């Protein structure tokens, strides 16, 4: 409760400073719209924003689930032999620093303009940090824990699910967090750069349209929604998972 | 208690930070063109340029020093898109920009403090397709994607105008639109991938039409019902009011460049062929293409506004020409007593 109160106080202070800045500097609505007009833009565009948000989240869900599956396969391969792990490490060194948006031109050449290209960029952005975290997680499982598991008669899938997964879960959660953040950024950025294909698009496309119509309050409204979704996913989903898993199991010390 | 105190500290810090940002912003706001060093009466002007055949006169003006003839020093700025140019103008980072009349009207409607200082070229703009089944704009199906530079661009508005005349619904194909810069759109067209049609301008237009089977579905002049400036030269209120000599010098330099291009098309082609990376014969052919008119006269300044208001792109229409144009433009058009003059009539669409 108290945490919530202090957060609300912080937001109120921020809006106060924002308005003060506008008043003292006489910025035009074009450069720095007032809180009221941003709120108004949010309200009048609510249905469009909602539709675009749903679209964005749908694409992210598709991209991220594919990326997690690919990352799991990649990790499994690199765990299954020294040669594979070296190849995977080299691959990661090459690919991980590439921002997803940098491969957009290639994605368009291969998949054309549209959802497929955006999906490709999202998957590419998320898959490398995911593999990195998964692999680190599995490699850092203490040997004695595995031994205890084996002594209890666990092997194969059971060992993986009951011992390896909980032991490496902090890393996996970290990977999911980074993967989500990168996927979210990539989807917005990709749509901002080349728009959407054929009248459907997510929040990035919304920002793009508002920008070209010079509706600065609308641009800010879109940004507010993007921030809110980021906060909601972090505090509701990831913090919730954390509380129910690694904190409960005492694998991380808070 | 402790956490509350921490928060107070945080808020105070934030406050200081923003106050600092605000003050620096305030001081940076007055960053209009700096006067040249003392002892010189040179004016400085910051001009944004983009790429394309219509920018030939500007390139000529730069190469032949037409602006310095009038004591004007130009700082050229290159920005990625029309959107960025408009934003830079709103932030007073630019004194002069070139853009289509519809994007300018969208800016004007939102309070962009700039007006038209010169018409800039009349040029063909056409919707091209490679699909033999598409003869008129009525033949487009939901699966046909139409590429154009951006929503609210002159191409988008021309298409909406034509659609309204043909079908009564200006937004009939909004779901078919794909926003692509001209070069990318041209590439997609030549690859016949994704894109069925492309609303574009020279040289990309000529490039596409030179391919077998590529044909024009909609001509921009027909959609508008007359000639219109492909771009207009905008000068900010700030610069116009504070630097009248600089303003006059810029308009004169632009006029000189236009005249030189019109009288020396061969030399222009020779001068600019390396910049456009095409042969000078081809460039000459483009410069002499049907419908190209290198002029600073105003054409069709008011013709887009009525339609854009009706279709919901802008909230108001300029009541009089002086809302959107500076005095040299107004004086060119004049005001005939009785029936409007020819010059007044060509500012409207049909």
TrEMBL record, chain A:
GO cellular component: plasma membrane
Main localization category: membrane
Alphabetical UniProt keywords: Cell membrane, Membrane, Transmembrane, Transmembrane helix, Transport
Protease keyword on record: no
Lyase recorded as keyword: no
Compartments where located: Cell membrane
UniProt cross-references to InterPro entries, sorted A to Z: MetI-like, MetI-like_sf
Domain ABC transmembrane type-1: 53-237
Taxonomy, superkingdom: Bacteria
GO biological process: transmembrane transport
Topology in membrane: Multi-pass membrane protein
PROSITE patterns, per database record: ABC_TM1
Chain segments annotated as transmembrane: 55-77, 98-131, 151-176, 188-208, 220-241
Annotated family: Belongs to the binding-protein-dependent transport system permease family.
Protein name: ABC transporter permease subunit
From TrEMBL, chain B:
Residue ranges of coiled coil: none
Designated name of the protein: ABC transporter substrate-binding protein
Keywords from the named record: Signal
Superkingdom assignment: Bacteria
Signal peptide coordinates: 1-28
């Amino acid at each position: 409760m108290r945490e919530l109160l202090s957060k609300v106080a912080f937001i109120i202070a921020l809006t106060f400073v924002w308005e003060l800045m506008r008043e003292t500097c006489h910025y035009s609505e074009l450069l720095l719209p007032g809180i009221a007009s941003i709120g108004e833009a949010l309200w009048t565009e609510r249905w469009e924003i909602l539709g675009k948000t749903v679209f964005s989240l749908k694409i992210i869900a598709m991209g991220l689930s594919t990326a997690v599956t690919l990352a799991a396969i990649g990790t499994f391969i690199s765990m299954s032999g020294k040669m594979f792990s070296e190849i995977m490490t080299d691959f990661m060194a090459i690919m991980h620093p590439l921002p997803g948006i940098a491969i957009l031109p290639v994605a368009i050449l291969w998949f054309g303009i549209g959802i497929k290209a955006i999906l490709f960029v999202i998957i590419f952005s998320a898959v490398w940090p995911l593999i990195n975290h998964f692999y680190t997680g599995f490699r850092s499982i203490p040997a004695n824990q595995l031994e205890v598991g084996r002594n209890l008669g666990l092997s194969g899938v059971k060992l993986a699910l009951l011992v390896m997964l909980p032991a490496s879960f902090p890393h996996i959660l970290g990977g999911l967090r980074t993967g989500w953040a990168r996927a979210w950024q990539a989807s917005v950025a990709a749509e901002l750069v080349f728009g959407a294909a054929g009248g459907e698009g997510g929040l990035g496309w919304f920002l793009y349209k508002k920008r070209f119509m010079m509706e600065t309050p609308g641009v800010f409204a879109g940004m507010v929604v993007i921030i809110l979704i980021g906060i909601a996913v972090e505090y509701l989903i990831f913090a919730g998972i954390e509380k129910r898993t690694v904190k409960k199991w005492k694998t991380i010390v808070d | 208690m402790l956490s509350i105190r921490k928060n107070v500290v945080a808020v105070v810090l934030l406050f200081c930070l923003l106050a600092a940002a605000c003050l620096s912003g305030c001081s940076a706001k007055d960053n209009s063109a700096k006067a040249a060093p003392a002892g010189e009466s040179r004016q400085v002007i910051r001009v944004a340029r983009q790429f394309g055949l219509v920018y030939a006169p500007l390139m000529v003006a730069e190469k032949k020093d037409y602006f310095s003839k009038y004591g004007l020093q130009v700082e050229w700025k290159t920005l990625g898109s029309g959107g960025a140019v408009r934003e830079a103008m709103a932030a007073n980072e630019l004194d002069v920009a070139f853009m289509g009349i519809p994007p300018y009207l969208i800016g004007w409607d939102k309070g962009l403090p700039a007006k038209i200082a010169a018409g800039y070229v009349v040029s063909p703009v056409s919707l091209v397709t490679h699909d033999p089944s598409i003869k008129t704009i009525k033949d487009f199906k939901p699966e046909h994607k139409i590429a154009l530079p951006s929503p609210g661009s002159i191409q988008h508005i021309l298409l909406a105008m034509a659609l309204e005349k043909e079908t009564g619904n200006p937004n009939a194909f909004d779901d078919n639109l794909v926003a692509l810069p001209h070069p990318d759109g041209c590439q997609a067209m030549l690859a016949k991938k994704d894109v069925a049609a492309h609303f574009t301008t020279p040289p990309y237009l000529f490039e596409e039409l030179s391919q077998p089977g590529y044909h024009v579905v909609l001509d921009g002049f027909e959609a508008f019902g007359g000639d219109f400036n492909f771009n207009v030269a905008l000068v900010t209120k700030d610069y116009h009011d504070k630097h009248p000599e600089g303003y006059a010098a810029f308009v004169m330099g632009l006029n000189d460049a236009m005249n030189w291009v019109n009288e020396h098309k061969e030399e222009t082609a020779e001068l600019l062929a390396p910049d456009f990376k095409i042969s000078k014969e081809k460039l000459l052919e483009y410069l002499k293409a049907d419908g190209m008119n290198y002029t600073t006269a105003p054409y069709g300044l008011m013709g887009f506004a009525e339609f854009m208001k009706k279709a919901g792109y802008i909230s108001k229409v300029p009541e009089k020409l002086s809302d959107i144009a500076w005095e040299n433009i107004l004086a060119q058009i004049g005001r005939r007593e009785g029936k409007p003059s020819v010059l007044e009539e060509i500012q409207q669409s049909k």
